[in-house]
Each structure stands twice: as structure tokens, then as C-alpha cells.
Design a protein that fits this description.
single chain; de novo design (two linked rop proteins)
């Protein structure tokens, strides 16, 4: 078996949508564009803000996409959610930095409004991605329990048919009369 046949066999089908890297995520792609736009803002800030606001915007912009990427690389859904929420926090910082640019009149208000709309679009995607991850985490947690519940239900039905009841406390089959208080 050669390398090409292995690649063909492991390639996902057209119907199954799999995200193989963080770069495949729409939330990452849109956040990346927003990061580039914020770097454009940094280039237009006055020299006085070089080590203050400009530095803060650069760090928050990089953190926005880095946390999405790092979260995607984590194994557990809860870790992915945690890093994506850190990314959302960085986005909020950037939106506040745009408020500073408005207050100090570093950039025209029309451009700030457009950038904020782009930022809110990123926020919607981040929130949607967190919702998706929470659903995945929920199903990952409940799937084994659902199988246990189904198994328990089948045992109950089986014992009911035999006129027995199963006690979920210890899983021991006992007659239906067991544990009832006898009248005096």
C-alpha cells in the first residue's frame, strides 16, 4: 500500500464536514481579517501611542487569533471552550481600544463604526463556535450515560416481565415485594 492510497482512504467524504486545522474554521478566518484591520489601525496611531495603545492593540489582536488556534489544538472540549472565551475577551479589549481611538480622535468615526461592525461579526462567530463546542462537550459527556440509561431501561423491562423489580441503588434484582412495608 503506497502513500497516495493511504491518503485517499483517510480523506474525509464530501458529506462529512471535518475541520482538520484551525485555519479551516470560519471564526478563525474572520478573526484573522479583523486582526489585520486592527494592525492597520496601529500603523495610523500617533507616535505618542507607540508603546501604549499601539502595543496593547497588537497584543490583543494577536491574542484573538492565537487563542482560537490554541484552543483548537487542545484535546478536551472544555479546554477549547476556555481558550475561545479568552479570544472573546481579547476581542472585547480591541473594541474598547477602538473607543479610545474615537475619544482621542485618532481615526475618523466612520472607520471606527465599520471596524466595530466587523468586530461584532467576529463576536457572533465566536459565540456560535462556543455554542457548538458546548454541544459537543454535552454529547461527549452524555453519550456514555445515555448508553448506561438505555441498558438500565432494558434491564428494568426484562425484570418487569419476570415480575421482578430492579433497584438502581445496587443493581440487584429483587422480587417486586422486596422492600415494601408490611402492614401490621
Amino acid at each position: 500500500m503506497n502513500r497516495e492510497s493511504l491518503h485517499r482512504e483517510s480523506a474525509p467524504s464530501k458529506h462529512a464536514r471535518q475541520f482538520s486545522t484551525f485555519e479551516d474554521l470560519e471564526v478563525y478566518r474572520v478573526a484573522r481579517e479583523f486582526r489585520k484591520a486592527m494592525y492597520g489601525v496601529v500603523k495610523r496611531l500617533p507616535e505618542v501611542e507607540r508603546f501604549g495603545l499601539a502595543s496593547q492593540i497588537r497584543r490583543a489582536a494577536v491574542s484573538l487569533t492565537n487563542n482560537i488556534a490554541e484552543g483548537h489544538g487542545r484535546y478536551h472540549y472544555l479546554d477549547r471552550i476556555k481558550f475561545t472565551l479568552h479570544s472573546r475577551g481579547s476581542l472585547e479589549e480591541l473594541l474598547d481600544d477602538l473607543n479610545v481611538c474615537t475619544d482621542e480622535q485618532y481615526i475618523p468615526v466612520e472607520e471606527i463604526v465599520s471596524l466595530k461592525e466587523d468586530g461584532w461579526r467576529v463576536r457572533q462567530l465566536i459565540d456560535g463556535y462556543v455554542r457548538y463546542l458546548r454541544q459537543q462537550a454535552y454529547f461527549a459527556i452524555t453519550r456514555p450515560n445515555a448508553l448506561k440509561a438505555w441498558s438500565f431501561l432494558m434491564r428494568c423491562i426484562k425484570f418487569k416481565l419476570r415480575k421482578h423489580a430492579i433497584w438502581p441503588v445496587d443493581g440487584i434484582a429483587r422480587p417486586a415485594s422486596a422492600g415494601r412495608v408490611q402492614p401490621k
